[in-house]
Amino acid sequence: MAMFDLPLDKLREYRPEVAAPADLVDFWRRSLEKARTDDLSATFTEVDNKLAVIDTYDVTYAGFGGAPIKGWLHVPARATGPLPTVVQYFGYSGGRGFPHATNLWAQAGYAHFVMDTRGQGYSAGGGSGTADDSPYAGLNHAPGFMTAGIGDPETYYYHRVFVDAVRGLEAARTSEFVDPDRIAVTGGSQGGGIAIAAAGLAGLAGIELLGCAPDVPFLCHFERALQITGRDPYGEITRYLKGFRDQVETAYRTLSYFDGVNLGRLATAPTLFSVALMDSVCPPSTVFAAYNAYGTASAREPAKEIQIYSHNEHEGGQTYQQAAQLDWFASILQTRD
User: Fold this and answer.
1) Are strands 271-276 and 178-188 parallel, antiparallel or unpaired?
2) Which of 173, 227, 311, 328 has the fewest C-beta atoms under 10 angstroms from its C-beta?
3) How far is CA 286 from CA 90, 177, 196, 241, in A?
4) Where is substrate annotated to bind (predicted)?
5) How far apart are CA 324 and CA 322, in angstroms?
6) Is residue 257 part of an annotated ligand binding site?
7) Catalytic center residues
8) According to CATH, what is the number of the domain 8-210+218-332?
9) What are the DSSP calls for 75-133, one per residue?
C-alpha cells in the first residue's frame, strides 16, 4: 500500500468543517440521563484465568436500555486497590474474549477494565457474548453494524454502544480495585473511536478522565472516509447508500451525532493518538480531523500528542505504540497530590 491521502504537512493542518447537530450535547445528555434510570447493577465475580500474576473478575453491568453488558476486570494478583485504571474498548468484530487474552495494562500494575462490544466478538470468541437485543438491530441495513438503525440517531447501533461505554466507566468506578479519580480510556480502530466518544461524553456523566489514547481510530469524519476509501467497515455504509439512494442526507445527519470529530471536541482529558499514513481502513485525514478537533470546545484545550507511523497500514504501531502508551499512562496516572 502506498501513501494515498494528504501529505503530512497538510494533515497536520487539516481542520475540515464537520457540522455538528445543534442538539448534539442535549441528545447525549438525555441519552445518558435515560440510561441512569436503569440500576447499574454492576457485579464482579472472580474467575480462574489460568494466570499466576493477574487476577480476573467477570463483569456484568446494565448498558443502554438496561441490557446486560459483559466485561473483564484484570488486576495484578493479590492487589488491594484502589488502582489507577485503564478502560479498553475493542476493534470492529472484537470482544473481551478469553480472560487470559487481553491484560497488558494489568501487567503494568493498573486495574484493566475491558468492555465487550454488543453484538460483536466473533473474531475473539472465548468469553465474548454480549447480545445486541435491541428491536432496532434488525432494521434494514447492510450486513454488519455500520448501518443498523442509521435512519435516526435514536435507533443507530452506536447510540447503544457509546452509552454502554460511558456506563462501563460508571461500572468500573464502583469496583474496590479502581481509583475513580485516575481513569484513562484506550482502544484501537473501532475501540479508538469508542474511546474518543467516551472521552467526549464522560463530562456529561460527571466523570473526569485523566487521559484518552485512541490508536488508528475509526468512526471519525465519516463523509471524508466514504469519499476516499471503499474498505470495510466504512464500505458497509457505501453499499447501503448504493441501494437506498434517497437516504444519503438522512444517513449523514445520523452519523454526525457519532462522529469522533464532533464528540472529540467535547473532551477535556489529555490525549495520545496514533495514525498510520498508509492506512486505507481509517484514512490518515480522518484521524487527523479528529485529532486536530479534539478538545477544542473546552475552555482550556487539553495536551495532545500523536504518534505517526509513516509506512504502516491499519496495523499501526502495534508494540511500538504500546511502548509509547506505557510511558504515557505512567506519566498521567501517577498519584495526584
Assistant:
1) unpaired
2) 311
3) 19, 36, 13, 20
4) 92
5) 5
6) no
7) 189, 279, 314
8) 3.40.50.1820
9) EETT--S-EEEEEEEPPTT----STTTS-HHHHTTSEEEEEPPTT--TTT-TT------
Give which of 182, 250, 191 is closest to 220, Cα–Cα.
191
Instruction: Classify 231 as helix, strand or coil.
Output: coil
Distances (CA, A) of 5 to 43, 105, 260: 45, 33, 19
Task: Write the pLDDT tens digit of every residue in 230-271.
Answer: 999 999 999 999 999 999 999 999 999 999 999 999 999 999
179-227, pLDDT tens digit by residue? 999 999 999 999 999 999 999 999 999 999 999 999 999 999 999 999 9
193, amino acid identity: G
Angstrom distances, CA of residue 117 to CA of 96, 99, 163: 8, 15, 11
Across the range 24-33, mean pLDDT stands at 98
Q: Is the pTM of this model over 0.85?
A: yes
Whole-angstrom distance, CA of residue 144 vs CA of residue 237:
10
